[in-house]
Design a protein that fits this description.
alpha/beta; three-stranded mixed sheet; 13 strands; 19% strand; binds 2-acetamido-2-deoxy-beta-D-glucopyranose; DUF7870 domain-containing protein
């Protein structure tokens, strides 16, 4: 050691070594403070080989949005105009039947009437339309509607009764109560006695799809199922039915930032935006024509 250079003062040493250590400790502490997102792997790639669409089609789709949108949620809006629909990239004339399945159909006008009937490019084909909706309050309006078959169930991975539940969202002194739709917080809500809960019939969507459509059919699916999409998509891939769907519009529900109300996340969904993004990317890498739906 050079005797003319004294050791750094202990306080300086503390700063040099202490700061990174403090930073590390704070990072670890914050990981415990914030509820970590589900660690369930979203990796589907191990289930290759996969689907139909060649990479020349996939590369022409609208790019996936990698950055989490932090603006106030307005539903399908400005993103819709960016969608590159499969029938605008390929010829449907070789398909046998044309089928549209709306999972989470709700009101006829919420997506079948307002979007699929009016905007989806159909190359003059008549599509058979299936409205999958478990909520009985929507069923009456489908009875008289020709060309639409109502399946009064929730889309699920097996036939059983499931709980739709919704606990109130509480941010500070504000409380938002919501109707129960989708399986979000279903079981917890059923247990706590304060939340809105309904029990609905759910059906095995893969089984239905496999029995009702074939490779030669052109099948479009919209999936807005309040978080269940993660399990449905895994099930479709695992049971080899994903490729029966030619074009999929999927809303991936993530833990959304609510600028309007609090600037906080509301912890309703345990998927983060980056996990949703990875799921879309994996599906496209596997040859699925999948779009982000909002
Ligand atoms: C669709 O049908 C209409 C009316 O029959 C016809 O005028 C039009 O050319 C058709 N378009 C295509 C893309 O086949
Ligand atoms: C599941 O439910 C659907 C719809 O009711 C029915 O068609 C199908 O046969 C059922 N599948 C099984 C395995 O019970
Ligand atoms: C969220 O967590 C619950 C319980 O751990 C799990 O059952 C559910 O599948 C998870 N949801 C997603 C989207 O991973």
């Amino acid at each position: 050691m050079n005797p003319r250079k004294p050791n750094p003062a202990p306080s300086l040493k503390l700063i040099v070594y202490g700061m990174p250590l403090l930073f590390l400790l704070l990072t670890i502490a914050s990981m415990f403070k914030h509820k970590p997102y589900t660690t369930t792997t979203t990796t589907l790639t191990s289930l290759r080989p996969h689907c139909n669409a060649p990479s020349s089609i996939i590369s022409q789709l609208e790019p996936l949005i990698a950055e989490e949108p932090l603006d106030v949620w307005e539903g399908l809006g400005k993103e819709e105009s960016h969608i590159r629909y499969l029938p605008s990239l390929t010829d449907l004339s070789r398909s046998r039947r044309f089928i549209y399945v709306d999972l989470g159909a709700r009101d006829y006008d919420s997506s079948i009437g307002s979007w699929f009937a009016k905007q989806y490019p159909k190359q003059n084909r008549t599509f058979e339309i299936y409205a999958v909706e478990a909520d009985a309050s929507f069923h009456a309006q489908y009875r008289a509607r020709r060309g639409v078959t109502l399946l009064p169930y929730a889309a699920w991975v097996r036939n059983e009764t499931v709980v739709f539940g919704s606990r109130p969202i509480v941010v500070g002194s504000k409380v938002w109560r919501m109707r129960p739709f989708g399986r979000i917080e279903g079981e917890q809500a059923a247990a706590d006695g304060m939340s809105a809960v309904v029990r609905v019939a759910a059906f095995d969507f893969v089984e239905w799809l496999t029995r009702n459509v074939a490779e030669e059919d052109f099948v479009v699916v919209k999936m807005d199922v309040e978080g269940t999409e993660i399990e449905l998509v895994r099930d479709l891939v695992k049971r080899g039915a994903m490729c029966l769907i030619d074009e999929l519009f999927m809303e991936c529900h993530f833990d959304r930032y609510v600028k309007c109300c609090s600037g906080e996340r509301i912890n309703r969904f345990n998927f983060s935006y980056p996990q949703c993004y990875r799921l879309f990317k994996e599906l496209r890498d596997m040859g699925s024509v999948v779009h982000q739906w909002w």
